[in-house]
Every structure is written in C-alpha cells, then in structure tokens.
Amino acid sequence: MINGERPPFSAVEVLYRSENFLVVNKPYDVVLNWDDPSRTDTLQHLLQERFPDLVDQSLKHCFRFVHRLDYSTSGPVCIALNKKAAGHAGKAFCQKQVIKQYLALVRGHISEDHLSIDKAIGEQVTPDAPVPMCVEGTPGCQHPRDAVTQLTVVERGLFEGQPATKVQLCPVTGRRHQLRVHCQSIGHPIVGDYTYSCRQDTEPYRMMLHAQKLLIPLKGEVIDIETVDPFTTTFDPRWQSAER
C-alpha cells in the first residue's frame, strides 16, 4: 500500500505455505467468508480462484480457517489444509499458546508508555445502541467476560494533522472487538473506527488496525509470521511521527 491506496484484491500476499498450512495477508475491508455464494468480494472467493486445488467441497466455506480477523482488520490469516492440521492449530488456540500482536493508530497522545487494560467486555443490549460490545459498568452491558489487553506505545505523532499514537496491542484474551473496545474505553479510539467512535470518525480511508505478528507453536511446524508495518510515512504520508 502506498499513500493509503490498497493493492488490487488479487494481489493478496502469501506469507507462508506448507503441506499443512497456508497463511495469507488479508487486506483491510475484506470479509473472510459469507453464506451467500454469489458474494465474490471475500477472502474465501480469492483463495478459490488462486488455489482451486486446495478447495475442499465438503466444507461449507471451502477452507478451514484456523482463526478470524474482523472485516476492517488487515494481517495474517492462517488456513489449515487438512483436518489433522486444523485440529492441532485449534488446540493451540484453545490452550492459549498462540501469540498475536497488533499495530494500531489511536486518537490522541497516550501519556504512559505501557498500559495493561483489564476490563471485562460484554454485549451492549440497549436498543439502538451504536456499538455491539462494551466494557463492564457501561449501561446496557450484559454478560461481561474477563478481557485483558497489553498496550505498548511505539511512537507518538500526527495523523492528518491530528494527535495520534502508534501502539502495539497484545490481547491476552480473545473477546469480540476486544482491542477496539479497550482502546475506546481508555479514551483513545482506533483511528477510522466508525463504530466505536460513535459513528464520528468517518474521514480515514480505513480503520488503522493491523495484525502484525502471528505465532502458532505447533509440534514439528512452528508458524511464525511478522508482517510489514503499514503505518509508516513511507506507506502512508498521512501519518507523521513526532519522535525523530
């Protein structure tokens, strides 16, 4: 991506491939799969076109996605190429052996260099609420579950002339929209997060959240992926670091 322009959909990068796994770099604003087979703007459809030999017609969505990324989030997605591999990877996720690290640009300058955000997350059931998830204590929040995110400041700067901070986010738990909810809860929503900015942050071309690192420590095959930081001035001059 140069100057915030996404590459052609067909140019999705293959990050890793073996007999058991395929890892690709999912673009932002792309859904993994969809129940409607006529929808072609999905990662599933792209994989079907590029790797027809890997399609498993016995599966509803043709591929064994080991984990998921939100529609707006970019970064590595791992696909198991057989049932046994899917089982091993699924076990690693269930046993919390997998390490995931994200990069994000958030609004404002965070004063602390490191934060441990320990706030339970539940469903927002208030009618017409603009957000689906919320932290415990929010009016209308039901069935909150423990959620912990480790936040480390990478650098402070400006995005489109407004104060912003680049942070590394490490989810200890895996709740729905956890990183987005936790950032919003400390007063620093992710740049371009339309939903958790209460529908106010509409100018950026994307939500600035990228899954930079994925480590799945499997016996006999360690999947260790680290992608390029998309939030640099070289890739996107809208971002300007103030720490040079």
Automatic annotation (TrEMBL):
Q: Name one Pfam family in it.
A: PseudoU_synth_2
User: Out of the domains of life, which is the source?
Assistant: Eukaryota
Any idea what this protein is called? RNA pseudouridylate synthase domain-containing protein 1-like
Domain Pseudouridine synthase RsuA/RluA-like: residue ranges: 20-185
Gene Ontology molecular function, alphabetical: pseudouridine synthase activity; RNA binding
Which species is listed as the source? Branchiostoma floridae (Florida lancelet)
User: Which InterPro entries does the UniProt record give?
Assistant: PsdUridine_synth_cat_dom_sf, PsdUridine_synth_RsuA/RluA, RluA_PseudoU_synthase
What processes in GO biological process is this protein linked to?
A: enzyme-directed rRNA pseudouridine synthesis
The family line of this record is: Belongs to the pseudouridine synthase RluA family.
